[in-house]
Amino acid sequence: MKIIFRNFRVIDAFTDVTGSVIVDGGRIVDVVPDAVVPHGDGGLVFDGCGRLVLTSGFVDMHAHFREPGSSGKETLESASLAAARGGYTSVVCMANTSPPVDNEAAAISIKRRADAIGLISLYPAISLTEGMNGKKLSPYLAAGRSAVRTYSPPLLSEDGRDVADEGLLRTALRAAAEGGHTVSCHCDFGGEDAAVKRVLELGVDCRIHIAHVSAKGAVNLLRDHKSHAPESPVTAEATPHHIALTRGDAEASGAETFGKVAPPLRSEEHRLELIEGLRDGVIDVIATDHAPHTTDDKLNGAPGFSGLETAFAVCYTTLVKRYNFSLQKLFSLLSAEPARILGLSGCGAIAAGNNADIVVLDTERETVIDGDTFASRGKNTLFSGRKLYGSVVLTLHDGRVVYQA
Ligand code: NCD
Question: Which pLDDT value is given to residue 34?
Fold first, then answer.
């Protein structure tokens, strides 16, 4: 179906114009700057009144969708809807399910179900070790390059757990590199700084992405690494909660219950270093680490926050309103860079020929967050009760409206 978005501020990491965007057949067919295009011929028309922001659908490199095995915490349906409400059109879901996703068939079965739901593009990550046991290579990696593949995950990851055995980690990274894979590393073995140092010093020529960087020391290690090796493919992410909150916020909600997250919320000094890391490009992307749990599980100390539905408002309010990041920089962090790192073609920019994955935002609208209204089954957020700027008005995926406020 043809859809015309007329009179929007069309802005992504590469463009910033007022104009119109025309969508047809799941693709962006035209971007018309500085013109209010006519109402068209029977398709849907949305008017941005020269004020609403239109950008490329957000890309989340790190979320926990919990299926198979923990549908009490989240289902593919509830997580997909939460993503669409948050403006996300592509998401990588982590492998720490029950059982863990350590083989291609398991990943394909999740992907097929998510495709049938049809709200977002979901890319299941596959683990580095079998059953995430940290003892031997996952069937996916062990099968090696000779295996016939129908699904190539944009990330391999042991997220939720570090690989303690250094020899095995090196073997896994070598196997990943041979298969052309990027590995998202959950670095906490011996502490975040030591774990990041270990991965950077392994010397394996693999595309490494450091997940949920939260500590000042880790940011500085990455800064040193990138300045000494500008061609290095190492990338990194920070989460909305680590850039907006500190230990005090965790303690106020229960440091061992509702305020608990891995890695933990830290001091203001760490938080400010993350902001600087994002500003100067040491940290490349924002990823939600959406980690939904039931209330009982939170009371029993399960770490994690529900993050998909608040990510944009938290990042916009924190980075743009408070720390003067440009909107273009924010959209680079939320869309263009994650799409590039994941190798998702046709994503990350508003350009003719790209996928019609679009989000419409009202940046001036203030909302009071209420976790109880989330589409996610995980209602746990430390942002409940906070007034934040920026809300998602509409999300288009593959040329179809998948969410409208
Ligand atoms: C993650 C989860 O719940 O799967 N939780 C979190 O706080 N990020 C796993 C983890 O990284 O510990």
Answer: 75
Map tokens 């799941």 to a residue: 26
Closest-CA residue to 189 (of 165, 221, 222, 213)? 165
Mutation pick for ligand 1 pocket among 62, 92, 96, 260 (CB with most ligand atoms within 8 Å): 96
From ligand 1's centre to the CA of 55, what distance in Å? Answer: 29
| Ligand 1 pocket residue status of 63, Cβ below 6 Å | no
Dist CA 202 CA 224 (whole Å): 16
Supply φ then ψ for residue 88, to 5 degrees: -90, 135
294 domain residue, yes or no: yes
Q: Is-catalytic flag, 289? A: yes
159 CA from centroid of ligand 1 (Å): 8
| Ligand 1 touching residue 261 (CB < 6 A) | yes
Q: Looking at the DSSP assignment, which residues form a beta bridge with residue 124? A: 93
On whether both 162 and 214 belong to a single domain, the answer is: yes
Q: pLDDT digits over 225-269, tens only?
A: 999 998 999 999 999 999 999 999 999 999 999 999 999 999 999
Rounded distance, CA 61 to CA 289, Å? 8
The verdict on whether omega for the bond into residue 240 sits within 30 degrees of 0, i.e. cis, is no
Task: Answer whether 289 contacts ligand 1 (Cβ < 6 A).
Answer: yes
Which residues does residue 47 pair with via DSSP β-bridges, in sequence order? 6
Residue ending a domain, choose from 310, 342, 374:
342
Active-site residue identified among 289, 297, 357, 362: 289
**Tens digit of pLDDT for each residue in 107-159?**
999 999 999 999 999 999 999 999 999 999 999 999 987 788 899 999 999 99
Are the C-beta atoms of residues 66 and 292 closer than 8 Å to each other? yes
Which among 297, 314, 342 is the end of a domain?
A: 342
**Which residues lie closer than 8 Å to 6 by C-beta, 6 or more apart?**
20, 36, 37, 39, 45, 46, 47, 48
Same domain, 261 and 391: no
Distance 304 CA to ligand 1 centre (A): 5
Residue 376 sits at φ, ψ, to 5 deg, of -60, 145
Q: For the chain, what's the residue count?
A: 405
Whole-number Å distance, alpha carbon 112 to ligand 1 midpoint, is: 24
- Determine the atom of ligand 1 nearest the C-alpha atom of 304: 7
- According to DSSP, the β-strands at 235-238 and 156-157 are unpaired
Measured between alpha carbons, how far is 13 from 6 in angstroms, rounded to an integer? 20
